[in-house]
Predict the structure.
Amino acid sequence: MRNLDQYNITQAVLARLANTPDPRLKQIMTSLVQHLHAFAREVKLTEAEWMKGIEFLTATGHKCDQQRQEFILLSDTLGLSMLTVAMNNDKPAGCTEATVFGPFHVEGAPHYEHGDDVANGASGEPCLVRGSVRGIQGEPIANAVIDVWQADAEGSYDVQRTDLEHAQARGVLRSGADGRFHFQSVVAESYPIPDDGPVGDMLRATARHPWRPAHLHFMIQAPGYETLVTHVFRDGDAYLDSDAVFGVRQSLVADWVKQPDGTTTLDFDFVLNPVKKST
Ligand code: BEZ
Ligand code: FE
């Protein structure tokens, strides 16, 4: 096929995909090409602009290493991560809602017993976190694996720090026979997502701030239930309505309560969705 022009090139590219053996890959590639071409036509993309786009994507790739995942930041700040989460986690009423995973989870975090301090030296005001893991009928879920991670008072995750050799403010616990758990940590504070790379440049160019409202991350797994990836957000935070990654859901906002004795507590109960039985 020769002499393709702006009017027939899309069909020519789609025809080239016709023999893709995997039907799902064929569907995704076809749609991607259609939307990319439609986008270029809609904005009348110039060659110089597309070269800038390629330079931006190249810089995004170059920024990635073991500690930094700039493509996740890009997906998050464009709302694509949260859209994907929302489409794939449409749970029955009463279940705890899911939100973005983010780039700072670490496999193999230290295991802790109830009452232990997962902060492990992280800066911040001490805080007792208590909660339960239940099913939708209210049944306690024993032995659920509760993975928790958060930033310290300066807004840094341990993996962002070069001066740390051990995990801080992250850990894995198991719910008790009554579904309950508790641990010590530090009060969550709002923090900016890393903005010293191309995604930060994009935020500044579009007059956006990089801040996330204060939150704790949780991933909860139990046999027979869908894995829940979520946060608990701190009520009253200034960024609840302008989260840089669009992750806030009202049902996940909770109070960090200052007790009369000066300590701070957070209580939050999680409800997991049962895995659908295949018929
Ligand atoms: C986080 O909450 O850890 C996070 C989420 C998305 C982008 C950057 C950080
Ligand atoms: Fe976070």
About this structure: The longest strand covers residues 126-135. The pocket of fe (iii) ion (ligand 2) is lined by residues 102, 104, 151, 212, 215, 217 (CB under 6 Å). The mean pLDDT is 96. The chain has two domains: 9-45, 70-272.
